[in-house]
Amino acid sequence: MVKINININNKAYSEEVGDNTLLVELLRDKLGLTGTHVGCDTSQCGACVIHVDGDSVKSCTVLAAQVHGKDLTTVEGLASEGQLHPIQKSFQNNHALQCGFCTPGLVMSAVDLLKKNSSPSEDEIREWFEGHICRCTGYKNIIKAVQEAITQ
Amino acid sequence: MYNFRYHKAETIETARSLIAQSDDPKILAGGHTLIPTLKQRLSQPSDIIDISSIDELKMITLGDGFVTIGALCTHSDISNSPDIKKNIKGLADLAKQIGDPQVRHKGTIGGSVANADPAADYPAAVLALDGEITTSAENHKATNFFVDMFETSLDSDEIITGIRLKIPNSSTYKKFRNPASGYAMVGVFMARYDNDVKIAVTGASSSAYRMLDVEDSLKSNFNNDIMADVDIDTTNFNDDIHASAKYRGVILKVLLEEAILELK
User: Fold this and answer.
1) Chain A contacts in chain B segment 199-218 (CB below 8 A)
2) N or C: lower Cβ tally within 10 Å for chain B?
3) CA Rg, chain A, in Å?
4) Any idea of the CA torsion for B20, B68, B107, B113, to the nearest 10 degrees?
């Protein structure tokens, strides 16, 4: 077991984790933060994307022990005081989801994109989502949602 | 995943002594090849030594016509580095074509070079940029480093600390991506220096290699005309479900021509 101290959504956690426990397993199974999903478990689908020290990463391909001392944000940490984050709101406005399974990861990636590039072109948005798979929407409304969020 | 013991090494010295104390250790940098390999139970190390918090391996430094990239620089660090974009544009473009943005936030150049995947992108750049791989023990010339598929001249207790690359006058990386994995079916890195050209190929065979014959032709005449006389020997090329050896040969010829046209 490895002892780790981490910050998730501005709350401090001190946890004992297995040496080979994945970060996404810690989040979902131990801490109950089930907004982060596991789609493929092979770092291809992007459903498990969260932020570690401000960068979007795939939490299925990180060991829990690796994030000792780091700041994490999961999809649960986006809304504040009952108000959706602007990206969440624009996903809702644009019907950018159908089954919603891939949505938490896409929303986390979109937040990271707009933090790093405040006015991405359509090509840049599509390129940024290369590591995400959505089987329902055909991506059209997801792109529209990000474009709407740019203007806000 | 099989069980292993996890250790975080805060210094290279600690990492080395942890390696010495372990039966079958593996070094974890970004983990974006190692962790998928562990998940598939393709590897069963006794100990995982996480070097990712050694900050001195995260620097990019410029000097005397060389760029030195710390082993723990991520693909994202490299593709966004103003120094790399300005001095070795081909390398910044290469790093941006690896995986996807989230993978690029974790995967490192040191990890990729140590792994020596025959379809990885960096080996082509390291060879064509007259690279030197600096480790905890010695310096390896890139030309002697990539031995075979997933095989390098690293000793089992050696840790890559940095990659030193000679700044070219101009450079480019041309890649034919596998549409599913994004790995290079064939990738060509071309660098131009004063009176010199260096070309290296990845993805085509069991490890990256220099194309000395084409380099020689281009040294005297940097023009795509020379391609008419280039005969690609595909005898040792990979021949698998992704592409036949012959097809890889055709792709290589096209990529070489594109690279020449860009740097002409």
Assistant:
1) none
2) C
3) 15
4) -60
The reply to whether B50 touches chain A by the CB within 8 Å rule is: yes
CATH number listed for the domain at residues A86-150: 1.10.150.120
pLDDT at B95: 98
Residue A127: list chain B partners with CB under 8 A.
Answer: 101
CATH architecture assigned to A2-76? Roll (3.10)
Give dist(CA B214, CA B44) in Å, integer. Answer: 42
Q: Do A43 and B32 touch (CB under 8 A)?
A: yes
Tens-place pLDDT, residues B17-68: 999 999 999 999 999 999 999 999 999 999 999 999 999 999 999 999 999 9
Cβ count near B40 (within 10 Å): 10
Do the interacting molecules here have an ipTM over 0.85?
A: yes
- Four-point Cα dihedral B221, B225, B229, B234, nearest 10: 100
CA gap B111, B19 in Å, rounded: 16
Domain ranges of chain A: 2-76, 86-150
Cα–Cα distance between A20 and A130 in angstroms, integer?
28
Asked if A101 and A34 touch (Cβ cutoff 8 Å), the reply is: no
Tokens coding B27: 């070094």
CA atoms within 13 A on the CB side of B164: 13
